[in-house]
Structures are given as C-alpha cells and as structure tokens.
C-alpha cells in the first residue's frame, strides 16, 4: 500500500467521523425561509459543512481565506471607519459566529478590532514591499473557527492622505457577493458617520442561520437534482491532463500566482455582440473559449470545468453576508471539427440545465458520487471559470475616495482558474495557477493563446475549433527562429 493510498484512507475515515458528528444537528424545517426561534440550534449549511471538515483536516491551510482591500485617498476619519465596521458586524450574525461540530454559535456583538500598521515613515518602495509582506502574512494566517471571529481587519497607514483597509474573511462566512455587500455597507455607513450623521440601514429580513435551518429541511427536493448530476457526470474523466512544467506532486501545496491581462475595448464589445447574436451570456462565450483552449492544449474531447453560481435564489438572501455560492460542473464534449458557434449552443443548453439543478451543494454532490479520491488533484474538475458579475463598489465621499485593490494571495485552489471581470467597458482577465505545476511564462503564453482564440472566434464563429488562431505573431516568430537555429546546428 502506497503512502498516498494510506493518506487518502486516513482522510476519508476522519471525514466520515466528522460528517456523522455534524449530521446530529440536522433539522426538518420546511417551507420558505422564516426566522428561527431564538433558542434554536443553528446547524452548518451543507457548503459550510464541507469547509469545516476541510479546516479540521488541514487547520493550517489558508486556501479558504477570502481577502478584500480598499485604498483610501484623502483625509480618512478612522473613528468613523471603526464605527462603520462595528455596525456591519452587529448587523450580520455570521461575522461574530464560532463554528464547531455541533453547528455555529452566534456571539454578542462586540465590534471588530481594527489593527493598525503605520508605514508612513518608510520610503515609497520600502513601504510597498513592507505592505506586501505584511498583507501576505495577514491574508494567509489561519482562522481558528471554534475560537475566533471569522473576520479580521488591518488598516495600513501609507501617509496622512493615503490608507489601505485590508479585510480577511474565512470562506465559511463569505463569498464574492458577500464581500461586495460588506464593502457597500461600510461605504454607506462611513459616508454618514464621517459627517457626524446617523444612518440606519434597512433591517435584514433574515440571518444566515435562518437559511441554514431552512436548507436542512429541503431534503425531499434533492433526489431529482442528484439524479441529474449522477447521469451527467457518469464516466467523466477524473483528471484533465493539461501539460505541466513539473510533475504533479502527490499532495498539492496550494501555492499559486496570478497572471493578469486585458482585452481591448473593441474585442470586449465584439464578445458581447457575439453573445447577443447567439442569445448566450458572456459566461457562455467565455466557457466556449476556455473549453476550446483546453481542448487545443490537451487534445481531450471530454472536458469538465467548475464554475460558481451565486446560490441566492431566495430574495431574502440578497443583502446577507454568508457562504451561499455553489460550484457546478460544466461537462463539455469537444471535437476539433466542431464549429465555435455550435460549441456555444451546446454550452448554452448545458448551462441552462445545470441552473435548474443548482439546489444540490457541491459538498453533497461529492458525498453522493463518492469519486475515487487522489490526493494529487481535486475531484471532478481541476479547472475553474468565473465570470464575475458582482461589481465591487467604487465610492466617493466628501473628503475621501476609495477604490478596491486587486490582491494576489498567492494561493491556488485548482490547477488553473480563469477569472473575467469588467471595468470601464473592457474585459479584464486573470489566470490563477498552481506554481507546483506551471511557470509564469507558460501561463503568460496561454493567456496570449486565449486572446488570439477569442479574436478569431468573434471574427469567424463558424470556423472549426482546429482552425481558430492560437499563436500570437511574436510566438510564431520565436518558434521559427528556434527551428531555424536547430536547422543550422544540424546542417553538415
């Protein structure tokens, strides 16, 4: 028996015990989401359950830490900022909860400690380096979910008129939508408090704990969802063998990096127009391009990628901070002779059917399917696509402006993830990649291939995938130069 096999069996045994403990808290609540009784125990949601188990198996792993940062320019009223953060924590029970096998315990509202890091006396280059070092440590520090709040805050002072607010949450209480809610509420409250005014935000209709109680009473609806996913994923390949720069390690370190790129305004407009032409969303356009790219790099005809959905089908959840996002699996049959336009239509049908069956959490799906586990890679898929449609707030007050910052937490949950955002009419892309597997240059070239493929697809969507351009001119020239050099070296 190999060390890897032993590790899998050990983790599986621990996981089974943890699930059994958690399931003791299941409830049978039914119907619409209603407020729970004040003394009612709060179970974990099914998505929280999976993350809690992972946090027990790997307590020092920062993979589920979610970070957001805002740069303030102007005269920042730090007292008003502290008051704003305290009020958000008071409003949202998740931000003052502890998590154990018995469920979650909401603590009384006691505010949020705002740690201060003063770098105002440093030279600019030194201050930036110091900030990056401290931010990395702040983001990567594990949460002790049974003992600590799942949110921490750091205020970095770069000068009298420049500050950075860094927030780190555990994924067990947050998702991208939640970060947007948090930032929007802080902005609204700060705008009032900094002017000496009071602001009463609309009362939340429910709390996340109410959703957890409600969700545990929906078991009768899951059979049809499970049947759909079981049929869809039967026979799916366990691993997409994207060529790597290094052998895959037996256990991933989850160390990662980011590569950022920008699509021109012209190409961004053309991609949106292509979506309108074929009555598909931007996500479906990018999913077709990503599948085509992976097919061209691997030769695989059966490709599974993961993608997130908001998981907020009930209107009562829209204003909540909590872990609602769910992960679905998009399985695509790709042939070299398949026109890009037909791939678009195939993915449209797939995605729409998936949406009808998103009620089953990814953790529940894994438990039901119980795929053969291999510690070297994630189950069901290793590639992720996220088209971000939840904009982070850009806000401006009387004395200070605030702009969200892009953070690189140097963590990669999957082999490769493609993120697409939109700002000022342009689509912004980023690849998050495992540095266990890939070099920066490899991912940079892949980003260039994606942009070439997108440009070819909008120009000639009826072309077969094998005929869409992939290599930028500079890479073609480099290849020709390399080959001519080989030819000269081999010449007699």
* Rg over CA atoms: 24 Å
* Architecture (CATH level 2) name of the largest domain: 2-Layer Sandwich
The major sheet is characterized as: 6 strands, mixed
Global shape: globular
- Determine the strand fraction and express it as a percent band: 15-25%
> Taking strands numbered 1, 2, ... along the chain, how are they ordered across the largest sheet?
4-5-6-1-12-11
Low-confidence stretches: 1-31
- Tell me the total number of β-strands: 14
The CATH topology of the largest domain turns out to be: Chloramphenicol Acetyltransferase
Summarize it.
By secondary structure, the chain is of the alpha+beta class. The protein has helices at 3-23, 46-57, 78-91, 124-140, 176-193, 208-215, 222-233, 265-277, 282-298, 340-355, 362-369, 440-459, 473-490, and strands spanning 65-74, 97-100, 103-106, 114-118, 151-159, 162-170, 256-262, 302-309, 326-333, 383-387, 395-396, 400-405, 416-423, 426-434. Mean pLDDT is 89; it is low at 1-31.
Question: What report would you give on this structure?
Answer:
The chain has helices spanning 3-23, 46-57, 78-91, 124-140, 176-193, 208-215, 222-233, 265-277, 282-298, 340-355, 362-369, 440-459, 473-490, and strands spanning 65-74, 97-100, 103-106, 114-118, 151-159, 162-170, 256-262, 302-309, 326-333, 383-387, 395-396, 400-405, 416-423, 426-434. Mean pLDDT is 89; it is low at 1-31. Strand 11 (395-396) and strand 12 form a beta hairpin. The radius of gyration is 24 Å and the shape is globular. It has two domains: 3-211, 2-Layer Sandwich (Chloramphenicol Acetyltransferase); 220-396 and 405-490, Chloramphenicol Acetyltransferase (2-Layer Sandwich). Helix 3 crosses helix 5 (176-193), helix 9 (282-298) packs across helix 10 and helix 9 (282-298) packs across helix 12 (440-459). A six-stranded mixed beta sheet has the order 4-5-6-1-12-11, with helices on both faces. A four-stranded mixed beta sheet has the order 7-14-13-10, with helices on one face. It has 13 helices and 14 strands. With 492 residues, it is of the alpha+beta class.
């Amino acid at each position: 028996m190999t060390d890897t096999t032993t590790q899998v069996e050990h983790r599986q045994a621990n996981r089974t015990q943890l699930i059994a403990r958690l399931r003791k808290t299941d409830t049978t609540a039914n119907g619409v989401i209603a407020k729970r009784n004040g003394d009612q125990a709060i179970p974990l949601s099914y998505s929280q359950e999976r993350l809690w188990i992972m946090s027990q198996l790997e307590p020092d792993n920062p993979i589920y830490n979610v970070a957001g940062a805002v740069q303030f320019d102007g005269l920042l009223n730090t007292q008003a900022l502290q008051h704003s953060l305290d009020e958000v924590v008071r409003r949202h029970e998740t931000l003052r909860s502890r998590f154990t096998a018995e469920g979650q315990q909401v603590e009384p509202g006691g505010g949020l400690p705002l740690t201060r890091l003063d770098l105002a006396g440093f030279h600019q280059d030194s201050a930036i380096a110091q900030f990056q070092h401290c931010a990395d440590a702040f983001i990567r520090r594990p949460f002790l979910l049974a003992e600590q709040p799942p949110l921490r805050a750091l205020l970095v002072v770069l000068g009298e008129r420049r500050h950075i607010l860094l927030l780190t949450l555990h994924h067990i209480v947050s998702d991208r939508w939640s970060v947007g809610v948090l930032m929007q509420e802080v902005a609204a409250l700060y705008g009032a408090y900094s002017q000496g005014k009071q602001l009463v935000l609309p009362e939340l209709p429910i709390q996340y704990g109410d959703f957890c109680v409600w969700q545990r009473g929906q078991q009768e609806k899951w059979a049809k969802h499970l049947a759909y996913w079981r049929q869809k994923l039967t026979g799916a390949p366990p691993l997409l063998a994207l060529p790597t720069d290094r052998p895959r390690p037996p256990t991933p370190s989850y160390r990662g990096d980011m590569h950022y790129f920008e699509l021109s305004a012209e190409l961004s407009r053309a991609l949106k127009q292509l979506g309108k032409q074929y009555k598909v969303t931007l996500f479906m356009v990018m999913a077709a391009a990503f599948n085509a790219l992976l097919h061209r790099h691997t030769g695989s005809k059966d490709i599974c990628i993961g993608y997130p959905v908001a998981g907020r089908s009930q209107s009562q959840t829209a204003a909540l901070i909590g872990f609602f996002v769910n992960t679905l699996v998009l399985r695509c049959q790709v042939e070299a002779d398949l026109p890009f336009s037909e791939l678009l239509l195939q993915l449209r049908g797939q995605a729409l059917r998936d949406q009808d069956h998103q009620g089953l959490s990814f953790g529940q799906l894994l438990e039901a399917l119980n795929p053969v586990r291999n510690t070297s890679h994630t189950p069901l898929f290793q590639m992720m696509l996220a088209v971000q449609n939840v904009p982070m707030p850009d806000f401006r007050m009387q004395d200070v402006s605030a702009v969200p910052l892009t953070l690189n937490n140097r963590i990669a949950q999957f082999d490769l993830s493609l993120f697409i955002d939109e700002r000022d009419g342009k689509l912004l892309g980023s690849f998050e990649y495992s540095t266990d597997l890939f070099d920066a240059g490899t991912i940079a070239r892949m980003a260039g291939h994606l942009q070439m493929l997108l440009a070819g697809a909008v120009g000639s969507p009826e072309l077969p995938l094998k005929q869409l351009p992939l290599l930028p001119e500079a890479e073609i020239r480099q290849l020709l130069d390399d080959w001519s050099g080989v030819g000269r070296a081999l010449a007699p």
